[in-house]
Design a protein that fits this description.
Chain A: This is Carbohydrate ABC transporter substrate-binding protein (CUT1 family). The complex is a heterodimer of chains A (about 425) and B (about 325). With about 425 residues, chain A is of the alpha/beta class. Chain A has 16 helices and eleven strands. Helix content of chain A is about 40%, strand content about 10%. The longest helix of chain B has about 40 residues. The chains are: A alpha/beta (about 425), B mainly alpha (about 325).
């Protein structure tokens, strides 16, 4: 299943291969948590699992609280979690998808962390922009454990072979279309300059909307753009599609996971949204690099800073105090930060970055410098932070994917697809209340 | 001879069973108890893992249940909503298409191979095992992943077509073809019905074939006039089982479409949509209603089969 997995993995931060290891859950300590123990569940790849366990050892040394670590891949993570919530026996602390926090908060199953801030959880050490990542209706239900942005990932080797200069940080959507077209011509038959990103909500549509002073959703959990906006968005991509600048829709079937089948890795396209270096670079011999999503004509990036993944405490947690202390360890403990390094995304505070900088690898450094650059650009945008994705987000996202592909396959006219999207997305957002 | 005496001869005198003494009844009860004791492992499984969950899901289908908070009673709303849900109707369309194409394909392949293997081959055991192998792998994830690779844009099929200068389509990514890769996968896994057909073929009475040979009947006549009618109970059995299986197909569609039923819902099989609704959209009440409708549809299909069976299934008396 794909509860916003792609959007999440698209973050530039090195959420390293978080879904790849879809292995079973670690054995559960069914005894539950006494006062000096705690169950903590997350999803992640091998690197993250090791790093978290190191951090948990530090936690146990410092507080004397034993942590029962339960981890798995992303696939099935929320199924199992939901089943446990349904059975009234959730873990004491768990890792949460930023896009789903409001869905859970709306059901009243998450603890409002306000009472732990600032006494236990030192939220003020985080970048101001990510402090609100887990906030729903002004209450903090989750604390970010990493941060990231959605870049355009491109194949630098193909650009060099085609003798086309790589996109500058100042490029616009017009430049994007032109460069994609030039690439298509240079790459030859059956290959295309860029991915068709008309279906990509957080990696493409959201920055495009924010550049125009709008957004995907507003603070009330409604759609924050109009039918005309979406029609224009679909038309933009339709033009590129007809010009052969972007890939045909048949290629979109293998863009949801970072594997050798992804058209960027198989060499069928040269630019994609939704993925970062950390997931894709290890899959290819080519040199990959990242650049900010094309800017609006007003020069704004429209980027929304993401909290990466969040840490949340269920209402039924048996040991919320210890869970809050563990959250704080992730946020502000230098030793733990060093132990986890980049395995959880780009650390969401300057304090963490300073602690890490001496030990980073080259591609990690590229992710970090890019993130800092984008953070500065976001500040220059002067836009309000993007509201948390509302309850029903997952179905609204599916609705965009469906409508965009109906247009791409030529099965629906743009106005029909726009109407279908608004009908389905609004039903999803209203139904989730 | 009077009419009366005739019937008397045909119907042997029926003696009413005498009311058993109470003591014997108790004894029999004890006997039964021991029987139930031995059945207990199965009975516990039936109740704990089948019947009680089924009854609970019937209750859930009448509620709004998001897994996180207690179910709220909403009556039949889930059922009435089903038929205005366009994606649901699409999933029905896709599933029916899948059932009516994959089941005949699979049975035809099974019968063909079974007949071919039934001609006194030397290494029958080897061939039988070989043809059964794909079914052993069954609905496994590994086979589906392999299928995805074979039919992908740069996959085996297109490389083969490329040898003849043909530019193959994007079989998985194109909504016109994606469904047929699933049907083909199902057809390839014909092992189980093949074994059943093979067992059936071995039991056909040889005298009919000898008589046909004397009469000079051709191979096709023999097949359609003798083999197929005699084999009809096996065909019926396989048809019922495979239809039920086809309605419940999940794994291949899930893997090949990356769990989304795409492209543009062309592989959105019923159970896949059910799963997406229940666990993806957290509408477990709605998903339960879907499950019960599927249960009813499968029951209906099976009933129709049994009703029609009287006309075409020959049981040797």
């Amino acid at each position: 299943m794909s509860i916003s997995r792609r959007g999440l993995f698209g973050l530039a931060g090195g959420l390293a291969a978080a879904s790849v290891a879809g292995c079973g859950f670690a054995p559960t300590n069914s005894g539950g948590a006494a006062n000096n123990s705690l169950t903590f569940r997350w999803w992640g790849g091998e690197a993250r699992n090791k790093a978290y366990q190191n951090a948990l050892q530090i936690f146990t040394q410092k507080t004397g609280t034993k942590v029962d670590a339960q981890y798995s891949g992303y696939d099935g993570y929320f199924n199992k979690l939901n089943t446990e919530f349904a059975g009234g026996n959730p873990p004491d602390l768990f890792q949460m998808d930023t896009a789903l926090v409001s869905t859970y908060a709306a059901q009243g199953v998450l603890t409002d962390l306000s009472s732990f801030i600032p006494s236990t959880i030192h939220l003020d050490t985080l970048y101001p922009a990510v402090r609100q990542a887990g906030a729903v209706d002004g209450k903090t239900y989750g604390v970010p454990s990493g941060s990231g942005f959605a870049p355009i990932l491109y194949d630098k080797t193909i650009f060099e072979q085609a003798k086309i200069p790589v996109p500058p940080d100042t490029w616009t959507w017009d430049d994007f279309g032109r460069i994609a077209g030039e690439l298509s011509k240079a790459m030859g038959q059956g290959k295309y300059g860029a991915l068709d990103a008309s279906k990509d909500d957080s990696g493409a549509l959201q920055p495009w909307l924010r550049q125009r002073g709008k957004d995907l959703y507003n603070a009330e959990g409604k759609l924050a753009f109009t039918k005309d906006d979406l029609a224009e968005w679909f038309a933009l991509w339709d033009k590129l599609r007809k010009a052969g600048a972007i890939c045909p829709p048949e290629m979109l079937s293998s863009t949801d996971s970072a594997t050798g089948n992804h058209p960027l890795i198989s060499g069928s396209i040269a630019m994609t949204t939704g993925w970062g270096l950390a997931q894709m670079a290890p899959l290819t011999q080519h040199t990959l690099d990242i650049v900010v999503v094309p800017r609006g004509s007003n020069g704004k990036t429209g980027q929304a800073l993401s909290g990466g993944v969040l840490l949340c405490i269920p209402v039924k947690s048996k040991n919320p105090e210890a869970a809050a202390k563990l959250i704080d360890l992730f946020v502000s403990d230098v030793e733990a930060i060093k132990a986890m390094a980049m395995t959880r995304g780009i650390p969401p505070s300057s304090k963490a970055l300073e602690a890490l900088t001496p030990t980073l690898t080259a591609s990690d450094k590229r992710d970090v410098t890019y993130a800092q650059y984008v953070a500065d650009e976001v500040a220059k945008d002067g836009l309000p932070p993007a509201p948390t994705a509302p309850p029903g987000y997952n179905d609204a996202k599916t609705a965009l994917d469906a409508a965009a592909k109906q247009v791409a396959f030529g099965k629906m006219s743009i106005p029909d697809a726009v109407a279908q999207y608004f009908r389905d997305a609004e039903a999803a957002l209203n139904g989730a209340k | 001879m009077s009419e009366n005496s005739g019937t008397a001869v045909l119907d042997p005198p029926v003696t009413e069973p005498q009311a058993a003494p109470v003591r014997r009844k108790r004894k029999r009860h004890k006997h039964n108890l021991a029987g139930y004791g031995f059945l207990a492992p199965w009975l516990i499984g039936l109740f704990a893992f089948t019947l009680i969950p089924m009854v609970y899901s019937l209750y859930l289908s009448l509620t709004k249940f998001n897994l996180l908070t207690a179910p709220q009673w909403i009556g039949v709303e889930n059922y009435t909503r089903l038929f205005s849900d366009e994606r649901y109707l699409q999933s029905i369309k896709v599933t029916l298409l899948y059932v009516v194409t994959s089941v005949p394909l699979k049975l035809a392949a099974a019968l063909l191979v079974a007949v071919a293997l039934n001609r006194g081959l030397k290494a029958l055991g080897f061939y039988r095992a070989t043809f059964y192998l794909p079914s052993l792998l069954g609905a496994s994830v590994a086979v589906s992943v392999m299928w995805r690779q074979i039919f992908s844009r740069d996959g085996l099929v297109n490389q083969f077509l490329g040898l003849f200068g043909i530019q193959g389509a994007d079989w998985i990514g194109d909504p016109r073809y994606a469904m047929w890769t699933l049907v083909l996968l199902s057809g390839w896994q014909f092992g189980t019905p093949m074994l059943i057909f093979l067992a059936g073929l071995k039991q056909l009475p040889q005298d009919l074939y000898e008589a046909a040979a004397i009469d000079g009947a051709g191979r096709f006549t023999v097949f359609f006039k003798i083999t197929l009618p005699l084999l009809s109970p096996m065909v019926f059995f396989n048809l019922v089982l495979e239809t039920i299986n086809a309605f419940q197909t999940f794994t291949p569609a899930y893997v090949i479409s990356n769990g989304l039923g795409g492209p543009i819902d062309s592989t959105l099989l019923y159970t896949l949509y059910l799963y997406l609704k229940g666990f993806g959209s957290m509408q477990m009440g709605y998903a339960s209603a879907m499950a019960w409708v599927l249960f009813a549809v499968i029951g209906l299909f099976t009933a129709v089969y049994f009703w029609s069976a009287r006309r075409w299934v020959n049981y040797a008396d």
